[in-house]
């Protein structure tokens, strides 16, 4: 059975509640005047007034509401202001209009028609309120000032949470927005792509990812061992004599006169072949080659693979090619490009959610980090000038202001190498203020980055349980280029 909900009565005025004789006499006079005015009305006017005050029965979600037509006509161009008995929602047998909507919110909707503004409890979901306002033809501007801020903040929080979920489930190096099937059947390219790029797609894909990570770590470890004297052997000529050079720099001399241990060379060549095949296959099966070629990781891979193939090929053709002094610079440049293999470690982020959380937290704090860099640049410029002037009478330190830039940066970061330091009381004062300023500047963005990290870290449980991210509707709010954490 339908439940009847009576409309709340308005507050009684002082004229209605005052017990003073003067107030009662005024009320009686007013009552007499209204009665006389009613007697003066014509029959047509009374009929029009009765029609405007005609009661309307509204059945909203099984709960019956009763109000007047005049109340519903207070706000024009809405679903309730133009009710007609020819409406499909009208039930002639029960003399009511039925709407299958949320009955808990409707009293506040009806109250909006009475007072031309709407108040909503804070316990209501902002998205549900937005749906109801849209259905009944009411605008957000009808919300009162006391409720508008809470309403907009709730929508902003929901939209922010949606952005966090979407970013958390996207791999940072992503070129993966592809269709998983063609004509209803999985294509061979898609299967290979998912195998190489999505470890969670199958057990063999996980095995592949572990093998890839192992070889990546092995390649980087090989690079470090090759820089040790114990990891290299002397190069000999065909006649058995050692290769020598007149270069005085011991690091360059080590690279020119020695070569990596044969075991390290085998590992290096194997990793080179593996990563080359992996790069070619990835390029062939990638659904978006242009996007793949535009990624920084792809550029790093090319800058690593091309020099390593070039140096390896030249080594097997002519082992003494790089031993001439005129070619040493080219040899060092190619060796420097081989260092780019260490950037391959960034691919690990797509396999470990903890690294992805850290990446997203830093990414969300880019503006704060840029602002920090600008403040530090300004501060080191000022303190470099101050320390140069403070130590101008000291001949043993700070020969120029450029050295002051280096000193100010190291002092503000509280590293303090000790290669340059003040030796006078004015210099001590400048150094102390510089160190304190660095602590303050560096400490400012830390809470923002930590808050962003906790915001993303809080999403790890539903994602780790492989829960599907709910498809939330578009929340029409203003776009703001800020971090996900709203400042207090």
Keywords:
488 residues, mainly alpha, Potassium Channel Kv1.1, Chain A, Helix Hairpins, 3 domains, two-stranded antiparallel ribbon, disordered N terminus, disordered C terminus
Sequence-ordered SSE layout with sheet pairings:
Blueprint (H helix, E strand, L loop, with lengths): L2 E3 L8 H4 L3 H20 L2 H10 L2 E6 L2 E6 H4 L17 E2 L4 E4 L6 H10 L10 H11 L8 H24 L19 H10 L5 H24 L5 E3 L15 H8 E3 L1 H24 L3 H5 L2 H22 L10 H11 L14 H12 L1 H25 L10 H12 L12 H19 L2 H12 L2 H5 L24
Parallel strand pairs: 1-3, 2-5
Antiparallel strand pairs: 2-3, 4-5, 6-7
Structure description:
Residues 54-155 form the BTB domain. Its main location: membrane. This protein has 488 residues and is mostly helical. The protein folds into three domains: 55-168, 2-Layer Sandwich (Potassium Channel Kv1.1, Chain A), CATH 3.30.710.10; 183-350, no CATH class; 353-458, Helix Hairpins (Orthogonal Bundle), CATH 1.10.287.70. Helix content is 56%, strand content 6%. The strands form two sheets. It has a five-stranded mixed beta sheet with strand order 1-3-2-5-4. It has a two-stranded antiparallel ribbon with strand order 6-7. Residues 1-41, 43-50, 171-185 and 466-488 have low confidence and may be disordered.
């Amino acid at each position: 059975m339908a439940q009847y909900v009576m409309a709340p009565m308005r507050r009684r005025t002082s004229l209605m509640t005052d017990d003073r004789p003067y107030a009662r006499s005024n009320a009686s006079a007013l009552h007499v005047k209204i009665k006389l005015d009613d007697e003066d009305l014509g029959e047509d006017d009374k009929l029009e007034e009765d029609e405007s005050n005609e009661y309307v029965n509204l059945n909203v979600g099984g709960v019956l509401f009763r109000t007047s037509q005049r109340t519903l006509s207070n706000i024009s161009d809405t679903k309730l202001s133009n009710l007609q008995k020819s409406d499909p929602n009208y039930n002639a047998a029960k003399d009511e209009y039925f709407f299958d909507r949320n009955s808990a919110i409707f009293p506040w909707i009806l109250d909006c028609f009475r007072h031309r503004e709407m108040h909503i409890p804070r316990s209501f979901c902002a998205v549900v309120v937005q749906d109801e306002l849209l259905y009944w033809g009411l605008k957000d501007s009808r919300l009162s000032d006391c409720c508008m801020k809470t309403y907009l903040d709730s929508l902003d929080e929901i939209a922010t949470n949606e952005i966090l979920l979407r970013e958390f489930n996207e791999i940072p190096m992503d070129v993966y927005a592809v269709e998983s099937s063609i004509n209803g059947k999985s294509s061979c390219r898609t299967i290979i792509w998912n195998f190489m790029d999505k470890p969670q797609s199958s057990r063999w894909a996980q095995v592949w990812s572990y093998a890839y990570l192992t070889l990546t770590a092995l390649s980087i470890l090989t690079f470090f061992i090759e820089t040790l004297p114990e990891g290299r052997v002397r190069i000999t000529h065909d006649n058995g004599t050692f290769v020598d050079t007149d270069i005085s720099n011991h690091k360059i001399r080590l690279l020119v006169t020695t070569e990596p241990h044969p075991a390290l060379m085998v590992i290096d060549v194997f990793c080179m072949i593996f990563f080359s095949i992996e790069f070619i296959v990835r390029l062939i099966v990638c659904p978006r080659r242009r996007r793949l070629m535009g990624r920084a990781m792809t550029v790093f891979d090319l800058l690593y693979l091309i020099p390593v193939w070039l140096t390896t090929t030249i080594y097997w053709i002519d082992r003494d090619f790089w031993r001439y002094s005129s070619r040493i610079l080219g040899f060092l440049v190619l060796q420097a490009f081989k260092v780019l293999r260490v950037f391959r470690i960034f691919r690990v982020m797509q396999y470990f959610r903890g690294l992805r959380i850290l990446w997203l937290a830093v990414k969300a704090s880019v503006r704060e980090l840029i602002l920090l860099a600008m403040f530090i640049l300004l501060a080191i410029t000022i303190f470099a000038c101050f320390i140069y002037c403070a130590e101008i009478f000291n001949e043993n330190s700070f020969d120029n202001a450029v050295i002051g830039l280096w000193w100010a940066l190291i002092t503000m970061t509280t590293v303090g190498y000790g290669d340059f330091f003040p030796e006078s009381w004015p210099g001590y004062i400048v150094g102390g203020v510089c160190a304190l300023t660095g602590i303050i500047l560096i400490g400012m963005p830390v809470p923002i980055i930590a808050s962003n990290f906790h915001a993303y870290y809080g999403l790890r449980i539903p994602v780790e349980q492989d829960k599907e991210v709910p498809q939330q509707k578009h929340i029409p709010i203003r776009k703001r280029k800020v971090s996900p954490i709203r400042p207090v």
